[in-house]
Amino acid sequence: xxxxxxxxxxxxxxxxxxxxxxxxxxxxxxxxxxxxxxxxxxxxxxxxxxxxxxxxxxxxxxxxxxxxx
Length: 69
Hints:
Arc Repressor Mutant, subunit A; 4 helices; mainly alpha; single chain
């Protein structure tokens, strides 16, 4: 099976890791010293790139595509 090439930025990768670990947007924002809104925008971008509509699909896609190594 050929893996799809998904180009997530370093920050998007960091946020994806925190999302899959169950952190909220506020918790992620505090850890990365950015605003909650910035985290939410990154989350939107990640979901757009993965072509998913909700968090369950996002996490499922990350696991299926082995995006985090």
